Amino acid sequence: MTPRRSLFAALAAALLFCGLVPAPASAQTVTVKLGTMAPDGSAWHSLIKQLGEEWGKASGGKVKLKVYAGGVAGNEGDMVRKLRIGQLNAAAISVVGLHDIETSNQCIATPGLIEDQAEFDAVFERSIPSFEKRLLEKGFVVLNWGDTGTVHMFFNKEIKGLADMKGVKMFTWAGDPTASKAWEAVGFQPVVISSTDILPSLQTGMIQAFATAPIMAFTARWYENAKWMVSGTWGHLPGATIVSKEVWEKIPAELRPQLLTISRDIGGKVNKEVLRMQAESIEQMKKNGLKVVDIPASEKAGWTQMAEKLWPVVRGGICTEAAFDEIKKIRDEYRAAKGKK
User: Fold this and answer.
1) For residues 259 and 237, what is the distance between their CA atoms, to the nearest angstrom?
2) Residue range(s) defining the domain that contains residue 30
3) Which 8-state DSSP code applies to residue 167?
4) What is the mean pLDDT of residues 39-45?
5) Mapping DSSP to helix (H, G, I), strand (E, B) and coil, where does residue 10 land?
6) Measured on CA atoms in the order 280, 114, 99, 156, is the torsion positive or negative?
7) Which of the four pLDDT bands, split at 50, 70 and 90, describes residue 275?
8) CB-hemisphere CA count at 13 Å for 245?
9) Residue 69 DSSP SS3
10) Are 262 and 255 in contact (CB under 8 A)?
11) What CATH number corresponds to the domain at position 190?
């Protein structure tokens, strides 16, 4: 990201543009270009804009955040590619997008690995230092972590039990061949498309189902063409707001701690509200025709087994064996401390 030209004399400006004279740090304005899939005008988008406003105030206008919302900057894979070539400097993306930078983060989203929200919160909290260290080694600073809630499957046809899911055309993230193997392992027919194409693909029948957090299904309006949601949790989908280390270090060192604190405070507010937001999203979708489907009691064990069939594909495929084992070890230690098996 190139700093804006300062108002120097014509010759100095020309020399600066050519890279022959460095601009004084005090004269620079750092503009951070951030991409997000959060729909324009959504609660998430509003919070990102709030982040930009608070950064501007705290820095006295020296740091500006320019937000490209609603997939304008492409899907998460597109945004990661743009981060690498400098077209974007920051992004708010899920662990699926982070996987394109550092694979270990996605282990936490493994279906069936984490039992409930309390367990997720505990395991995730302990995992954050290693996640941040690995991302920093790849050239990215984590501004904050976010939780979008629990992941559920949505279908465009009536689902009564596990048998109805067999052979269904399931949305699969582009850019991750292992994800296709994972869906195949549990009986789905994976269809690889960009997440920005989910809505039209549901409308044409190219896909029949997708798995995401209810908040995302609601804000992106994907549920309007997928009216059956399975109540059983398929996993969790955390994410992070990251900024390239190169651009972060262009911000005056004395400002960075305050900007990081602002980022984490805003992220923390969102995380505290996520379960309420999820419940509200489900209620709103139900008012608009969504049907929540409970897995029959006789098939609960089968649901768990279906999720666990994915583990061999995830471990050593989507993320490294060591990273998967680390998350599972933290989970097991949490369960032991709680007296759970």
Assistant:
1) 25
2) 10-337
3) T
4) 81
5) helix
6) negative
7) confident
8) 10
9) coil
10) no
11) 3.40.190.170
